[in-house]
Structures
1.
Amino acid sequence: MERKKYPRILFRKRLRELKEDVNEIGQIAIQAHKNAIKAFNNYDKDLLDDVTKARDKIEELSFHLERKCISIIASEQPVAMDLRFIEACIKVGSHLKRIGSLSVNIAEAAKNLKGEEIPARSMEDLNHMANLVQMMLSKGLYSFIDQNMDMARELRHDDDKVDDLFDQSLENVTSSMFQNKDSISYMIYLLFIARFLERIADRAVSLGDRTIFMITCEKPKKLELKK
Amino acid sequence: MERKKYPRILFRKRLRELKEDVNEIGQIAIQAHKNAIKAFNNYDKDLLDDVTKARDKIEELSFHLERKCISIIASEQPVAMDLRFIEACIKVGSHLKRIGSLSVNIAEAAKNLKGEEIPARSMEDLNHMANLVQMMLSKGLYSFIDQNMDMARELRHDDDKVDDLFDQSLENVTSSMFQNKDSISYMIYLLFIARFLERIADRAVSLGDRTIFMITCEKPKKLELKK
């Protein structure tokens, strides 16, 4: 008789549940980022509260996800791709947690920009960045959920675009500060927001890298060092 | 006969090895941060290279640490404190990895400040912050290695000081920019360095929180949300 450690029906069910959990957390993170950008464009205390609540929810859910993953590893002793999938769930959970915190950072920075006059060019730069990042977040999440390597690989190129936009907005914000000294005290928050967006993009890339590692066993380190 | 799943000699040995691994990675991270600050005070390409190499080494070592931890969980099915210790090793590894990257960020930002005139006040603020952060890093690492709850708890208060210094340096840098428009293009890197230091301090706090959770089972989430 063939040694059939897997598939065990219950085990498969537990893996499916993990994927559903990751998807749930991912959707909350994507929404948190959207609301943070809304707050940047039109600050509103309720939006900041929404993003903060989302961050807390993500922390709680990813904490439970991690416990579940560890308990499955201990009780089922999965191997190969199954093991890598469970490990990936832990990592993806912690990336999503960080994306939640960075979204709160954006919404909080937006508070400092409320009512201030922001150069149209900087608004455009940052919204352009935010749109790319939003798309990268979805790609990162769905590349993992659907185990789609092509989508995961695209994220590296997307990230280059975000990096270019980051440099561009740094330059534009700096020259605006130069033209209008009075704007310095709040314009620095535009710099921070650009930086937060760039960090979220990095996390989206990490979601893709983890997906690639899960499927191919290609070490994320090598990928990460490419940049 | 008493059911003696633990202590098994080999199992204990493997746990000791994990602790040694964490300590090794921690020492490299502490040194990377020191070199990054040296580069800030007196930029030198070799220092940037050292920090980058340290970051790469940390990534490699923490990757192997994670594999080891997962394999111990799967093969030994540890419970309670032993399990929490192993999980903590994974988390601590990933915090140290992030500290390595942030150190590279500091050294790279320092490159942009090379040869520029930086106001003495800002140099003082940032060095003050860097010293506190250096001390927090050690505390974070040793609180985990020695399972010292008091040390772990102190980190929250240390972090408040770092946050105050961050606000202070933000204010000082902004007012220097205001006085000397030509400085804006490089002074923004001081803001970024302040932010990187603040992020490293947060990671040091996370090391302490993880230690507390490992010992008391008190959820890190609650602690994290306190700020």
2.
Amino acid sequence: MKKGESTMTEIKFERAAALKAKPQDESKLGFGSIFTDYMFVMEYTEGRGWHDPVIKPYGPLPLDPSAMCLHYGQEVFEGMKAYRAADGRILLFRPEENFKRLNTSCERLCIPKVDEAFCLKALEQLVEIERDWVPHIPDASLYIRPFIIATEGKLGVHASNSYYYVVVLSPSGPYYAAGLDPVKIYVEKSYVRAVRGGMGFAKTGGNYAASLKAQEEASEQKYAQVLWLDGVERRYIEEVGAMNIFFVIGDEVVTPALQGSILPGITRKSALELMASWGLTVSERRLAIDEVAEAYDKGLLKECFGTGTAAVVSPVGELKWGDKVMEIGGGQIGPVSQRLYDTLTGIQWGKVEGPAGWSVEVCK
Amino acid sequence: MKKGESTMTEIKFERAAALKAKPQDESKLGFGSIFTDYMFVMEYTEGRGWHDPVIKPYGPLPLDPSAMCLHYGQEVFEGMKAYRAADGRILLFRPEENFKRLNTSCERLCIPKVDEAFCLKALEQLVEIERDWVPHIPDASLYIRPFIIATEGKLGVHASNSYYYVVVLSPSGPYYAAGLDPVKIYVEKSYVRAVRGGMGFAKTGGNYAASLKAQEEASEQKYAQVLWLDGVERRYIEEVGAMNIFFVIGDEVVTPALQGSILPGITRKSALELMASWGLTVSERRLAIDEVAEAYDKGLLKECFGTGTAAVVSPVGELKWGDKVMEIGGGQIGPVSQRLYDTLTGIQWGKVEGPAGWSVEVCK
Ligand SMILES: Cc1ncc(COP(=O)(O)O)c(C=O)c1O
Ligand SMILES: Cc1ncc(COP(=O)(O)O)c(C=O)c1O
């Protein structure tokens, strides 16, 4: 049997003895801190492939203290959401893209690939069981976290021969408590997130571990996030903590090209496709921070916004680069940001018809 | 109370119901695959600091599926050994250096620091309990793995508010089954391990995760390890998989300077100190791969060797850079490598008196 091939037919279900109380006040959910009753788990064993898929009560994973994920960071994950439409349907947004990216991450981390179609089916089954956990209030959603961790209990540095694939679900509140609100970010000068040749394009623990220190320093200075520059020339724009970044310069919408060091965001991809369909000039290219500053000085920097599953579109109101503080859009949300936000959230919550296949119905 | 401060007085001991059988054939131990009866565990909780230190039976750690170490790689570790001297004493080699480096890693990863003196005391206590597990045959030792993992069960990307510090012990066989044997390594051209501004100087999962793919490709080509180049100019030598690297060029012994992207090895540091005390010319500086190739062409590249806890000193017999294959030392071990190996292992196994404080006796 080929590495990564699955030997599964159906998904076992282990019923919980009792269910948790659902959150009372969905506006206070926050992000990623409470979890639903069930999780999906399957195991990988060398020679057997992925096996024993099961939906079972959310609970601790017993891990050998020498499990490789705890020492060598051999772990990958995904992040997506389930949305409740006004008519009660539960929707996913381009979920195949997440499983495709999961496998790209697996490849970089020497983790056996998963069967994308099976994982989507299993996720749909899990979300259907947990449908009552999908929040009801506007802009709240059920955050979905699939992840794979290396479980072999050995201390030699090599790829593990066993893994867990797990999916947990977390009802999460609206990202913007009081509507779309521009954030302040600064350009990071000391720390580097990832460099070409590294694993920046993969969604794997180490990239986030590397970002904690810069994020902590940004928070102390009351900035929401940092804008990463490339690790080679320390000049080209990469991305923000958990978002890709776009600039509207004159009549061009620019976002850094994918060159191996940034995450290929699914919101980024969708935004590019939407804007092109609207007839906007969109460019994926190298973009130096000094080009942005120059555009700002000339009055050409019209908008700046981040894109990601959590915030969908996040307008940037202030961008600080060393001593230079760039105020963008005068505290207002620009027209491109607003249109993207409305369109993407419209599609996600089933209010707007998107391109074919973007919206996947889990159940009614 | 200050972050990271400890509230501990004494270490609890939970006796195992039964002890495992000790390995029959110590020459077949391999590395890091069997573990002793006990492990050391302590917990960190925000507001309380490190608490509840306990020595208890080796066994699974129950981790929340959302524990941050499983998603964001917030984890650091150390690697050291306990050696059995001919007269029965159990010795550690410069253990304070490991705990100092552990705290350096903690700092980079936003993990609360540990009390170094307490951790050394706890380690000594654990090793003393497990003294019978320290191998008896020459060149075998008890590998010691202290590590810290983030345990908070939340999916927001920020530093965890709770951690485990764990120490596990693994009896390990001689690194060289048939005496010091030169290895083949190649210069990595596609992948990068770490870049300045990143976390290359810390002993943390992500750095090893990033190296798996290159290591896998090297193994397929029958090379033992890869030699990493810097991520910026892709020209300056960094280190090998789990070793620092030295070159003897003419009368100079050169090793890359510590500039944030490589691990500051304790064997490296010890080797530098020993060689300086022998009156050798040692330099920590930038060293380009083309300078090494030029030295080779001129017949000046006399030795190349790696240093690390696992192999102590590992002579490099072949270094491949693109199409250029450099055969070093004609399959023989050079005089500097040999003297370093003999001296370091002599000190480690208590046969040779080293500089004050290098050898720490755990028990007799
Ligand atoms: C580093 C990073 N960049 C960008 C993104 C945006 O990706 P997506 O639009 O797929 O959510 C994320 C995750 O959400 C991220 O973690
Ligand atoms: C990446 C790396 N470099 C170098 C070394 C050598 O360090 P030390 O001599 O402290 O064992 C190690 C670990 O052993 C390592 O993992």
3.
Amino acid sequence: MTDENARRVRGSYRKGVAKRAEILRRAVVVFADSGYRGGSLKEIADGVGLTQAGLLHHFSSKEQLLAEVLDERDSADLERLGDAQGWAFIQSVTDQVRHNTTVPGLVRLYATLSGEAVAEDHPAHGFFTGRYRRIRGLMAGALRTAQADGDVAAGVDVETAAVSLIALMDGLQIQWLLDRDTVDMPGALDDFLGRLRA
Amino acid sequence: MTDENARRVRGSYRKGVAKRAEILRRAVVVFADSGYRGGSLKEIADGVGLTQAGLLHHFSSKEQLLAEVLDERDSADLERLGDAQGWAFIQSVTDQVRHNTTVPGLVRLYATLSGEAVAEDHPAHGFFTGRYRRIRGLMAGALRTAQADGDVAAGVDVETAAVSLIALMDGLQIQWLLDRDTVDMPGALDDFLGRLRA
């Protein structure tokens, strides 16, 4: 390959990567607004100046697009949690919730998709089932460590507290999205965590 | 009107009422499975042996059908709550959650629709915003009475506890629908309420 050709290939590759990222950002908005079932590939394609055929050149199907949206969001969230342990980990979760109040579009994405995905034939059903199991495990582990460290009261059932902590965060998102001036997500979470303290 | 004609009119009215009820039951199933945006009038009509035009003879639009589904469910739930006060009211909520474990289709209906309805242009957006405000008011009132009766600890902020109690129930439904053998909704709720006690 000549230098000229190599440059051209690299340039086109970079453009492809940028377009993929643009499509993913647009898909987040459309799925958050209309859900996966209600949102159309056409709407996403229109939003980034492509035809549907052009979009399918970057992602092989609507399902694949959904899967990549979810994977990317999850990686970003997990990175933010870092490698804190015990009570410090639990506190980093409240930081995450505080951060979420600045990104209502993403909160809406999860609220809409997790609601839809309870249907067994939904393409993200397996993703959400696995995700909740993983997060329950993480939370229960952190609470157990915090209990051993004397940061969580001895009487607390850590498995139940893990389920409830995650449920509380999910439910708060729904009320917050409907009524942002009334519902204080980080405040309610702190209140809940305060009652777990030793 | 002759007796014969009157009988015919009454018979046709009764059939109309029965058909309406059948359509509503079918709409619950379709909206629970596919959401409001993903579920189609055609699918509902097919399920009750009607054409779409035939269905629209009973309900003027898909939106009206959704509104009646939600109104009917809400009335049934409120009836079950009865007129208990204070801590007895809060306990009747855990009875409702226990009852919910026997009607997964209805739980799915609420999980799917409330997730969708966070979008401002969703036809049930106003319904859910109003419903949450009403339920928060009911819960905060019952918790305040329970606190005055000495059933809830003096340090509990009843407004925050009301938001959290409702959020917990909503979030538990998502996890339960995805993993029924693992997630114990009434157990997690009892655990939460136990920590509010005086």
